[in-house]
Amino acid sequence: MVNSSAEALALDDDARIALILSDRWVSYPQGTTVLRWLEDLLRGARRTRMPSLLVVGDPDMGKTTILRKFMRSQRSDFDAASGLSRMEVVAMEAPPEADEMRFYAAVLEAIGAPTPAGRVIDMERAVHGQLGRLQTRLLVIDETNNLVIGSAAAQRKTLAALRRLSNTLSMSMAYFGTLEALNALASDPQIEGRAQPYRLARMAKDETYGAIVSAVVAHLPLRMRSEVDAAFVDAVHEISGGSPGKTFRLLNAAGVEAVDSGRECITVASLRADEVVRHVRTASAMRRGAGAFG
Questions:
Q1: In this structure, are residues 45 and 171 in contact, taking their beta carbons and an 8 Å threshold?
Q2: Backbone torsions φ then ψ of 11, nearest 5 degrees
Q3: Fewer CB within 10 Å, N or C, the chain?
C-alpha cells in the first residue's frame, strides 16, 4: 500500500497523486480467503483428479484485483543447467466466446508461444506440449463467463478441451468471472464437480469494514488527518454500496480531490462531491435516477 511516511508526504502533488492511483493491495477477508485457496491449489502431489476453484461475483467485487495480487507473487524460473523454463502458474483471459481454437490460441498467447496454423489437434498438441514443458500446475482463466456465449456445441467442445488439459497434465484450474460463469461450467459435470465455488459479495457495514476504510485512508499520502468516524464510514458504505472495488475507488478519488483542492484531508462532504462520486457512478444507477425524475 501507499506509505504515508514523511518521504511520501514530501513529494509534490503530481507524485502523490500517482501514488494514490497506483495499483496496491488492500487486505480484506474475502480477498485473503481467495488468495489462500489459490495457494492451496499449488500444494500437494499431482493426482488424477486435480482440485479447482471457481470465483464469481458481480462487477466491482474485486475479482481482477485479487487475480493481479496473486499473479504478482508468481514468477517464471529458468534453469540454466537444463536450459528449461518453468511457469508454475499461467493466467489468461477466456476468449470472447466459446471456441476451442480460440481457447488454445489464448493459452499460447498467455505464455508467449507461437500459434501453429492448421487443425484443432495441432493446436491441442502445442498447448499440451508447452504447458507440460513449463511444468504448469495451475491455469487461471479470467472472464470465464464468456464461455456461455456461442453455440451449445462450441461450449461443450471448449469445456471438453479444458477437462482434457486438466486430466492429461494433472493441472488445477482457477476460474474467475461473473455469476454467469456458474452456468458456463454447469454443462460439464466433471469440471463443475471439481471446482470449489466461492462467491464474492458486498461487504457489510461492520467493524471490519470500518477498519478497512480507516487503513486505506491512513495510508494515503495526505498532509492533514482525515476524521474517519462512524459518519465517514457510513458515507463510504452508502456511496459504494459495500462493493470492494467501488469502496477503494471512491477513497482513491477522494484522496486525489483532497490533494487537488489543497485541503489535504477527506471529509464526508468531499466524499459526496460530484467530482468524487462520478468515479463510482454506474450507468444503471444513472438510469434509475433519471426514472425517478421522468
A1: no
A2: -70, 160
A3: C
Task: Please tell me what DSSP assigns to residue 203.
Answer: P
To the nearest 10 degrees (0 to 180), the angle between helices 230-240 and 207-218 is: 100
Q: Give 290 or 138, the one with higher predicted confidence.
A: 138
Alpha-carbon gap, residue 42 to 73, rounded angstroms: 13
- Look up residue 262 and give its amino acid: G
- Supply the pLDDT for residue 167: 93
CA distance 60 to 84: 39
Query: How much is the pLDDT for 260?
Result: 96
Contact 33, 198 (CB under 8 A): yes
pLDDT of residue 49: 80
